[in-house]
Design goal:
This protein is an alpha/beta fold. It folds into 2 domains: about 5-10 and about 255-375, Aspartate Aminotransferase, domain 1, CATH 3.90.1150; about 15-250, Aspartate Aminotransferase, domain 2, CATH 3.40.640.10. It contains 12 helices and 15 strands. The strands form 4 sheets. Strands 2-8-7-6-5-3-4 form a 7-stranded mixed sheet, with helices on both faces. It has a 4-stranded antiparallel sheet with strand order 9-10-15-12, covered by helices on one side. A hairpin with a 2-residue loop joins strand 13 and strand 14. Helix 2 runs parallel beside helix 8, helix 3 runs parallel beside helix 4 (about 100-110) and helix 8 packs across helix 11. It is globular and about 70 Å long.
Length: about 400
């Protein structure tokens, strides 16, 4: 039996998206900027996908800028605003941002910008009062991740966005993990920019989008022919974007039934592992992504029993999960997300994440829980015996 429980890393492209890509590759392969029939057929596919992606978040189609993925969308939001200024200003992010935001903020600091990183509580939530206190006269942008990919915590984006808006500060959110899993309506959500990714919603990898509220100005990262409303030059990858569009449209249609199903499976998995004393849930149990379950291993030696150890052991059993800690140059590093939430270095090396998706069944959840328990009993027999 093989069970895939790493849907926050990527999702398998759905058959409808693959069909749309194949049709585009064989029938509408022209350059969408060309004025002839071949180009205009491709342009029609491109604009249909723009409408489909916009529909997922209730945005006007012209506010969608296609990118190569969520990382580029995040970079365009941060750097696109920063490049509007001739002198360094101040930006605010959270301490648990995706690296696409965190690393871009570090680059701004090298350029002389001031960056404030808001703290989070032990569940990974930003306190809105901390944002209020951090705002300065020269703050030009706030970027707070909507749903944290490692620990699953959802932020109070509406409240945070309203604080930024009340001070006249632009607000961006990385919604890569949220889109297609929870409803997003940018007509009511106080965000000026919002990042999306195709391969998180059963579309192909290689496409993403940045929603930009009409009237918000960005300086492009790429110079060239001025595609994507002069915000992102380069000939668009029409077949990939076509798959993205179909995946977005179907995600919107299926959300009313799929999201409650994922929440039930999520709670089933949490409950199935509740009697395992060495597994301690991370993130906010209630303000949480519907498909997301995460833990750290209590009392484990992070050097000997790490999140990566459990990933490897479960992989041998045919189950795919993800580790919270990253490995750089062969050295296991503590998860910066768990460290920011107040966990020790040792605990921050033991984080794991199990994320559910369209193909996940109740039987998959039960089997994965049973196998994970068996692995922990084998790796940590002294802890099991001590708790009997």
């Amino acid at each position: 039996m093989q069970i895939y429980l790493d849907y926050s890393a990527t999702t398998p492209p759905r058959s409808e998206a693959i069909a749309a890509m194949q049709a585009s590759l064989t029938q509408t392969w022209g350059n969408p900027s060309s004025l002839h029939e071949w180009g205009q057929r491709a342009a029609t596919v491109l604009e249909l996908a723009r409408i489909q992606v916009a529909g997922l978040i209730n945005a006007p189609a012209e506010s969608i800028i296609f990118t190569s993925g969520g990382t580029e969308a995040d970079n365009l939001a941060i750097m696109g605003v920063a490049r509007c200024y001739s002198t360094p200003q101040h930006v605010i992010i959270s301490s648990i941002e995706h690296s696409a935001i965190a690393e871009t903020a570090r680059l701004l600091e090298l350029w002389g910008w001031e960056v404030t990183r808001l703290p989070v509580d032990v569940k990974g939530r930003v306190n809105p009062s901390d944002l209020e206190a951090a705002l300065q006269p020269n703050t030009v942008l706030v970027s707070i991740i909507y749903g944290q990919s490692e620990v699953g915590t959802l932020q109070p984006i509406e409240e945070l966005g309203n604080i930024a808006r009340s001070h006249g500060v632009l607000f961006h959110t990385d919604a890569v993990q949220v889109a297609g899993r929870l409803p997003i309506d940018v007509q009511h959500l106080p965000v000026d920019m919002l990042s999306l990714s195709s391969h998180k919603i059963y579309g192909p990898a290689g496409a993403g989008a940045l929603y930009v509220r009409p009237g918000v100005e960005l300086v492009p990262l790429l110079c060239g022919g001025g595609q994507e409303m002069r915000s992102r030059s380069g000939t668009q990858a029409v077949p990939i974007i076509a798959g993205f569009g179909v995946a977005a449209e179907l995600a919107a249609q299926e959300m009313p039934t799929e999201t409650p199903r994922l929440i039930r499976l999520r709670e089933q998995l949490f409950d199935a592992l509740a009697d395992t004393p060495s597994l301690i849930p991370t993130g906010d149990r209630y303000h949480r992504l519907p498909h997301h379950v995460s833990f750290y291993v209590q009392h484990a030696d992070g050097e000997k029993i790490s999140g990566k150890t459990l990933v490897r052991q479960l992989n041998l059993a045919g189950i795919a999960i993800s580790a919270g800690a990253a490995c750089n140059s062969g050295k296991l590093n503590p998860s910066p997300i768990l460290l920011a939430m107040g966990f020790s270095d040792s605990a921050a090396k033991t984080g794991i994440r199990l994320t559910l998706g369209r193909d996940t069944t109740e039987a998959d959840v039960d089997w994965a829980a049973m196998v994970l328990k068996q692995i922990l009993r084998r790796l940590m027999p002294e802890l099991v015996l001590a708790r009997r």
